[in-house]
Amino acid sequence: MNYRIADSRLFIEGAPVSFFSGSFQYWRISPELWGPVLEKVKGMGFDMVETYMPWSVHETAPCEFDFGERDPHKDVGRFLRICHDAGVKVLARPGPHINAEMTYFGYPERIFADSDLLARCADGTHPVLPAPPRMFPLPCYHHPRFQAEVKTYFEALAGALGGERSLYPSGPIIAIQADNECSKFMRANPFDWDYSDYAVRLYRSWLENRYGTIERLNETYGTEAASWQLLDPPRRMSSARPRDLPRMLDWTEFGEHYINESVRTIASMLRELFGDGVPLFHNYPVTLPVTPLDMTGAEEFIDFQGIDAYPQKTAYHGVRCGVKYTSAMSRLPVMAEFSSGSIYYALPLSLQDQTFTTWSILMHGIRGVNFYMIVERERWYGSPVKRDGRIRQPHYDFFSRLLANVRAWGLEEMRCERPVMLLLNREYDRLANAASLLSPISLLISQFTGMFDSPPDKLTSTESFGLSEPVASRYLRTLAFWYWSLTAAGAHFAMGDTSISDATLSGYAMVIVPTYEFMDAAVQAKLLAFAEAGGTLVVGPRSPSLDGRMGPCDTLARHMREPAKVLGDADLFGVHVDELALYADDDSGAPTMTYVTPVGAGRLVHVGLVPGELCSVEDAAPFSPMIDTLTRSAGIEPAFVPSVEAVDVAVWRKGDRLLLFIANPTDSTIETTISHSSGGPFVDLETGEGIAGDSAFSLVLQPYSIRAVGGGAC
Amino acid sequence: MLAKDITVIDLGGDNWSRLLKLPRELARVRSAEAPARRVLLVVFEGLRVLKAIDLLDGTEVEVDWMGSWRLDRVARRTGYDVVVALENSALARVCGHAQRGMDFRADMLEQWGGYLKGVAREWRRTIFTWPPGPSRIPVPSAGMVQAAVSALVPDNTIGLLAITERGRAWASLVLGYSGGDLWLLSSLDAVDMEEADLREGRLQLACEMLASRFGGRVRALAIERDLLFKIASTRVPAAEVLWGLNSGEIKTIDYPRRWKALLVAASLLGTRVRKNGRG
What we know:
The complex is a heterodimer. By secondary structure, chain A is of the alpha/beta class. Chain A is 30% helix and 22% strand. In chain A, the strands form nine sheets. Chain A has an eight-stranded parallel β-barrel, surrounded by four helices. Chain A has a six-stranded antiparallel sheet with strand order 18-30-31-36-33-34. A six-stranded mixed sheet of chain A has the order 20-19-21-22-27-26, with helices on both faces. In chain B, the strands form two sheets. Chain B has a six-stranded mixed sheet. Chain B has a four-stranded mixed sheet with strand order 3-2-4-5, covered by helices on one side. Classes of the chains: A alpha/beta, B alpha/beta.
């Protein structure tokens, strides 16, 4: 199969793929209904389905498998043939981790009986995932015997599917998932687990690769380790001076390597069995895949990746954040699992939730969606197609309209306009994860359970860990400040992190990144190069004077000034800020909280503001004029700015076609005016009605609704 | 108690959504008169406070910390009704206790029991509260709980709870219990009666269809939604329950006497003397 990914789209045999799929778990549906149910799925406009192929379903005894020889429900080969005959493409997800609300998440029970294969916590016990109906201990993916077990299953599965013959165009498979939601099962606090032998071996070799010599490591850590084999990972967050931090941050960063190596191992097995002619993908169980998830690193060995979400309509900003991030960081940003119905013990989702959140993710840049589950099955409810082929008409109609509109409006060919990039700082994210209180709570768990919803640093320690201030906690607040302030100002921005490539970075006019006293030297150099090439780099509140290993580094700091005055617990525009640094203005000498330094063809803007708790658009609204000034000074003219801060607008274009999504993410009806300089005319794409207004038009937006407005030739 | 391969099937769409929302709605009705109790969470390490937050809104709170043995003072000075103080390693230690004895094959009730035992072991070691609560947390063994459930629920039972609106099913829950295990979780959608009229013998028909679909003996309780909310909000729920049983707003089919006794006992226990909801 010839494939390529370009412009955030998948092309197979030269043709773009409309990446809308629905989950259909064959072994949970009567085999005689596979064909008729598939027709119902096609009836909504889907020409792609996704299915897991669970290890525990097909393994009947160690090294013995049933692929339909005994139980027709397990005849995955026949299921693929039916899909192929029906012209339906397939996303294959063979695990080994699948969840699917199955007991033991698709791992055969016998795997857990061998304690040698299991991961270990800092206290030596085996970490457990408390998932109903049985909790189970977590395996260590780096144990060679675990890998051999997985490979045996994959070989049997590939044999049953016919290997490369199962791939498009001779078969229906167009992409294969390399494991599922690899995230240390969200128990991602670095000091929780994995201290198993094979994990610690991997850690030592990772350190060796990073430092080269033990002397260099000792010099950084301030230790006297005699050999790599004697290095033990830290078991709790403890740092009394900056020099203690590299060891903590290395262990935290190693968590990223641990996960990516797990996925890489699974990916290479799949490559061996299915060849290079199929894209491999991976997905994360949270909307904002922060450390220890590493999208940039993962795309070195997989083709694309995405996130999973089952949001209620009230979770708009959480989802928006994640989609903005994923759409900038992934080659082909997909929602590998997006709610269609609900898991049986989760909060229910209404059709309004479904409608609003689905358009939300498309509005902010997701380019492909797999609706999980499009066909209902055991331990799931509320899908448009029931297990017996009956349909839930309102849901069925929603999906039919959704796909018809996406295609009719040409959304898949358009690009989202976002001249500003807000960068998460990976080093501070690592510090924040290491500083998460009450392990096993981690940034990921907090995100998943909503514990961090507001304020962002709720369960992050306010300790300084030897630095001059509590960087972890303050960083999270600074990030929240920029997110809410940009949103309140109606700025069109993407999100990414400091691992972003130079090439991607160069596509933005302005980059904002929180900076505190330490920052990786290479990242500093990359950001400075961005500014020197003509971009506007917004940094602050601090000048980083140390690199990631706590050695001196002034790459950015030499372009930044020391404040003339620092005000603690200040009031700025009526909002409390923890600290406000004032600098002498170049021309007048008057105190100012921002100043601009020309660097190369671009500029560096320093904002010396340590914000307090900002948790909403309303909190941040007083900062809108400041954001407006900043963006205008970077040459970014405001476009389609709503008169009400809570209203959110996304702008999509291709050539002279313009598509606006205008969202009301609140529970009140809002009447807003959208000012613009495009001239119009505009049309409501749902109703076909014209919208009048040369420089502004008015809209009434119902609670939790999104209007699609076309302009130009759209 | 909970079957390893529990069958969770045909929950319906709207049905299950309504059912999952119901406890919250009932709790809201029940607590409408009672003021919300403010809870302060303090995470500490020795004499250092790592974070103190208001659990309701997550905002940070300044506390004058004198150690976990002076939470009364923290409560008095901050004005919080309840203070929960956790040593930073508390959750890890609770997990450690549970994980040390965890059997992945064991019943989930027993598995959760491991966490509860972990909490009991850490109680007043790394977990503290104000008001202080009991000096120790008694943890019943899984065997005791199992025996109590088995005594209450006849073997091979299919239980149907239907919440009706003017006789029509608004939400329903079907549970299967056999051999000491809950093995089935379903709804009237399983017999295509998700929103069916259950009056005039049709509740009996639903029971027969469920018996034919899942086997076992079906025991049903149907209650009008309005009455359920009245029971939740009234100070004397027993009176409403008795009214419902007599007026037909509560219907039962093959309902064991022990369940009826339990229903009445629970409603008596729900009697509230004071207006603030604390009975």
